[in-house]
Amino acid sequence: MTNIKFGTIGGGVMGEALLSRLIAQKVYLPREILVSEPGVKRREFLTEKYGIGTTASNLEVAAATEVLFLAIKPQVFDTVALELAVAADRKQGNNGETANSQPEALVVSILAGVPLSKLEPAFPGRGVLRVMPNTPATVGAGMSAIAPGKLVQPADLELVKRIFQAVGEVVEVPESMLDAVTGLSGSGPGYVAILIEALTDGGVCAGLPRAIASQLALQTVFGTAKLLQETGMHPAELKDRVTSPGGTTIAGIAKLESNGFRSALIEAVKAAYLRSQELGK
Ligand SMILES: NC(=O)C1=CN([C@@H]2O[C@H](COP(=O)(O)OP(=O)(O)OC[C@H]3O[C@@H](n4cnc5c(N)ncnc54)[C@H](OP(=O)(O)O)[C@@H]3O)[C@@H](O)[C@H]2O)C=CC1
Ligand SMILES: O=C(O)[C@@H]1CCC=N1
């Protein structure tokens, strides 16, 4: 009997973000985690850092685990699905069992774009969920949106919600919203990181040492998000409160507006949403 509860195909950035937090939160023991990765150096790194099992074989993970996570790039999905299907056919020919994983194993895909209409046929008869998490999951401040497929039972959905609640907030959405979710919260940490970097550069430009500018930028973004989250205040109200008549903030905001700051962010989310749609084709 296997004791693998969290098997992941692809142990890159997001796979590691999830498993590191799930181990830290004691949702899974390291020995309950198995990750397949093509790179030997990457496998050694993951095993040494987290004490988890690693393998070069996707089939080994798929056959061993209770919950199968897909954390490969969308562009690799067809290859991996074919690999699992060929192995399943071969095993079915041999002894009539389903080979591409434990028969009841749930499949959780975090792939951008790839729709349930492609995922479900790759795992016939099995519950498949799509989840779009984000990298702040690493520190328990993630945002994950879950869209369950047709065969997912209520208890399975609860299980997957509990897993992602251990790495941050969770919202359930219809699959039709997942590309938009990807454009906003999936890709969002990239936009916010650039915002923080640019604010820091602005501070340096105005004469601050970089270390101090960096601390100010980071805490200002963090504090503003915390203030809005804890009070429920509308962002426009906070902006109005900071903006003294004829003062500094409105001078800064006027520059942001004349440089298209808002529309740049709106366009960024829209471009990422459209790219997510493309990746699913
Ligand atoms: N990064 C993020 O912020 C988020 C990513 N996602 C989704 O997560 C998925 C993974 O993204 P991310 O972690 O950033 O990407 P990474 O490239 O960091 O991770 C993917 C991993 O899969 C490995 N891999 C490549 N081919 C195979 C294969 N045939 N079998 C098994 N493993 C393979 C890669 O190895 P190698 O590098 O050697 O090719 C790599 O380590 C994507 O589908 C993405 O859409 C979702 C939400 C947020
Ligand atoms: O850039 C990407 O495609 C992935 C999906 C969301 C965040 N990173």
TrEMBL record:
<feature type="binding site">
    <location>
        <position position="58"/>
    </location>
    <ligand>
        <name>NADPH</name>
    </ligand>
</feature>
<dbReference type="Pfam" id="PF03807">
    <property type="entry name" value="F420_oxidored"/>
</dbReference>
<keyword id="KW-0560">Oxidoreductase</keyword>
<feature type="binding site">
    <location>
        <begin position="9"/>
        <end position="14"/>
    </location>
    <ligand>
        <name>NADP(+)</name>
    </ligand>
</feature>
<dbReference type="InterPro" id="IPR028939">
    <property type="entry name" value="P5C_Rdtase_cat_N"/>
</dbReference>
<protein>
    <recommendedName>
        <fullName>Pyrroline-5-carboxylate reductase</fullName>
        <ecNumber>1.5.1.2</ecNumber>
    </recommendedName>
</protein>
<dbReference type="InterPro" id="IPR000304">
    <property type="entry name" value="Pyrroline-COOH_reductase"/>
</dbReference>
<comment type="similarity">
    <text>Belongs to the pyrroline-5-carboxylate reductase family.</text>
</comment>
<feature type="domain" description="Pyrroline-5-carboxylate reductase dimerisation">
    <location>
        <begin position="175"/>
        <end position="279"/>
    </location>
</feature>
<keyword id="KW-0028">Amino-acid biosynthesis</keyword>
<dbReference type="GO" id="GO:0055129">
    <property type="term" value="P:L-proline biosynthetic process"/>
</dbReference>
<keyword id="KW-0963">Cytoplasm</keyword>
<comment type="pathway">
    <text>Amino-acid biosynthesis; L-proline biosynthesis; L-proline from L-glutamate 5-semialdehyde: step 1/1.</text>
</comment>
<keyword id="KW-0521">NADP</keyword>
<dbReference type="Pfam" id="PF14748">
    <property type="entry name" value="P5CR_dimer"/>
</dbReference>
<dbReference type="InterPro" id="IPR029036">
    <property type="entry name" value="P5CR_dimer"/>
</dbReference>
<dbReference type="GO" id="GO:0004735">
    <property type="term" value="F:pyrroline-5-carboxylate reductase activity"/>
</dbReference>
<dbReference type="InterPro" id="IPR036291">
    <property type="entry name" value="NAD(P)-bd_dom_sf"/>
</dbReference>
<comment type="function">
    <text>Catalyzes the reduction of 1-pyrroline-5-carboxylate (PCA) to L-proline.</text>
</comment>
<feature type="domain" description="Pyrroline-5-carboxylate reductase catalytic N-terminal">
    <location>
        <begin position="5"/>
        <end position="86"/>
    </location>
</feature>
<keyword id="KW-0641">Proline biosynthesis</keyword>
<dbReference type="GO" id="GO:0005737">
    <property type="term" value="C:cytoplasm"/>
</dbReference>
<dbReference type="InterPro" id="IPR008927">
    <property type="entry name" value="6-PGluconate_DH-like_C_sf"/>
</dbReference>
<feature type="binding site">
    <location>
        <begin position="71"/>
        <end position="74"/>
    </location>
    <ligand>
        <name>NADP(+)</name>
    </ligand>
</feature>
<dbReference type="InterPro" id="IPR053790">
    <property type="entry name" value="P5CR-like_CS"/>
</dbReference>
